[in-house]
Each structure stands twice: as C-alpha cells, then as structure tokens.
Amino acid sequence: MEGLTLHQAITKCWTANVCLRLKPVMQALPSCVVWELWKRRNRMKYGDVVTTSRVIYQVSSNLQALVKVRKHGIDMVPHKWKDLLSMMENFTPKLKVTKVMWEFPSAGWLKVNTDGASRGNPGRSSISFCIRNENGDIVKSVGKEIEETTNTVAEAKAMVEALRFCRFQQYSHVWLQTNSMLLKKIMDGIWKPPWIIFEQVEEMMQLMNGGNYTVTHIHKEGKKLADHLANYALYHGEIECQQFWHLDAQGRRLVNEDKLQCPSLRVKVDMR
C-alpha cells in the first residue's frame, strides 16, 4: 500500500484477486481501518493514548466478527490477519442435503398445491392451483394471470381461489400445501397478517371454517406443477384442466414424476 492514495488503496482492496468467500472481508477492510484510525485520532485529540498495535488489534477483531457473522459453520475463527486469510482460503463448508418430493394424500383426501408468481415484485402476476387425489391423478388444475401485484399477494390470492373451488365443490377433506412460510405461520395463528393481504386471510379463514382442512408448508421443489402452471399463465395464457391429457407436455411430465416419487435435492451450507 506504500505510495498509494487512500482512494487507490481502497480500490486495490475491492479489486484484489482473492477467492470469492474472501471478497466481503477484503471489501470491508478499508472501512475497518479508516474507522479505527478515526477513533484513534479523536482519542488522541483529547489526550488519550492509543498505540498502533491497539488499532491493528481492533481492526482484526472487527474482521473476525464479520467472518463469524457471515460463516456460521466455522467453529474457530482466527484473530490474526494472516491466519484468518489462510483459514478462509482453505475452508470447505459442510453441505446439508434435503430430499424434497410431492407426497400423496391419504385415502379420501384431496391435495391442493398453490402458487403465486410476480415478475418484478410488484409486476405482472399470476396464480395457480392444482388438486390431485390419493392416486396422484388430476382433479382440477388452473393457472391464470391477475392484476400486477407482489409475490405475497399473489400467493394469498392463489390460496383463496383454491379454497373457493373446494368449498363450491363441497370437498370435505382437503390438504392445502403452500411454499409461503409467511402464509403458513399466519394460518396457524403464529403471525399476524400484513394489511395488504388481510382481506384474503379473513376469507381463507371463513372458507376453511366447518370443513376438514389442513395447511402445511412445502419447499418449491415439492409443488413443481403449481409453479409450472403459474409460469404458463404468464407466458402462454390461461390454462384450466380437469384431466391429465389436458395438460401440456411439461405438465404431464411433472405429474408422472410426482407419481413416481422422483425427488429433488436442496443443497445448502449447514449452518450448525
């Protein structure tokens, strides 16, 4: 860094040729250094003695804390700068693999998967739901575009639309599955609904009242057909099917994969 201006030194840190996981640390380094120098300047101005080694120690502590926040899976984060760099370069994260697949409903039950899509959030939006019986056969599947809105509103409207249909058809045992953890928590009474979907939540509660309904959460990979129908509505137009052969080729393939219990694997860094 000798002979460089402050601007050049900061640019050098931001553009340093390091591994991807070290980028945030290198980019934070100038801020940590300048902040500690500023604190030292203020203390010395009012008669307090702050050594250079103390400033270096504080910078290292800040960077150590940053790594601990960003990399929960690392048990011991070194304090010394060289050791920290070496550890980050050689760190291999532990991966957690979760198997996700569409599940068959119990005998006598119907399973409903819903999805809401928004391109732009808010932007062009669509909703979808698909109802299947205990054998995995299509009972009803719908995908249609709605007014421009957000993902959250689209998800809520998809659930309302599905419940309206189930209530109209007088289905008695319905298993509703959504990938929106927000709506799942709201339906369980754990969280309060935001004002923007308050009306939809109230209607859902009324539609479920008096019936045998259960709501669970599923990852996106476990409801691929509903996701496909929502995207189909945005790019190709409304789709409504009551039989397997009414679906497009991709929709039929997804139904067959679900029946065969083909799993999807969710891979993420193990934070424990």
UniProtKB/TrEMBL annotation:
One Pfam family per UniProt:
zf-RVT
Q: Gene3D superfamilies under this entry? A: Ribonuclease H-like superfamily/Ribonuclease H
**Which SUPFAM superfamilies has this protein been placed in?**
Ribonuclease H-like
One MF term in the entry's GO annotations: RNA-DNA hybrid ribonuclease activity
| Protein name per the record | Uncharacterized protein LOC107788446
